[in-house]
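<backbone_tokenisation>
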Amino acid sequence: MASRRIRQLGDPILRVRCEPVHDPKSPAVRLIADDLRDTLRVARKKYDLGRALAAPQIGAPVRVIFVEINKPKFRAVLVNPEITDVGAEDFLVWDDCFSFPNLLVRVNRAYRATLRYTDLKGKDVTMELEGPMAELLQHELDHLDGILALDRPSGLDPFAFRSEWEKLHKPADRYGPPRPREV
């Protein structure tokens, strides 16, 4: 278990399509998961942001993601995750990434998605995602396919340095205007 260097924009491993994991219960996968957890926690302290990391961001070209969210409390290691369905509704979000931490990119993401993955015990899990959680996992799954938010800009002027964006917007603005919930 150790914090690893987060690979930065320009590192070729960020453009690799990651290999599937054959044994989610293996010690090698547990080691990657632990390193992702430790690296995320160190990066959070440094940047004061972050909810997840994908394995290629620490130099491991395998299909593993670590997610840790405090509100609502959620922590999981996603092995071989895939989105099996998306809703018809999209929304715009200012996306950020530890691999280019000073840049924001406005992207279009599905507001709802269904995610399937295997956990570290080998159990298959299906989750229904909405809003920020759907956006987060679409971002992380893109990493597993060698796709960065920079590849998905939306609208005019879709790039902003974090410092400039923060002068003009509140953090809550990242996900666009408030949305009515369906009943």
User: Anything to note?
Assistant: The chain is about 20% helix and 30% strand.
